[in-house]
Here is the input.
Amino acid sequence: MADVKSLEEAVEALDPGALAEFRRWFAAFDAAAWDRQLETDIADGKLDALLAEAEDDYRNQPHRSL
Here is the structure.
């Protein structure tokens, strides 16, 4: 945890411009990590039950004509 504390202190010490740059970088980094995890979960079948539930809900909903 010492590494995390060091990172926290370093982020707190950033000037506003550097903090904005860091935030943009971290948002992109975090989004890419999320995408990788989602792709892994899909490939591993971890979302299959949710997909089946959504498909079942869709098939069983009353359909309205426009």
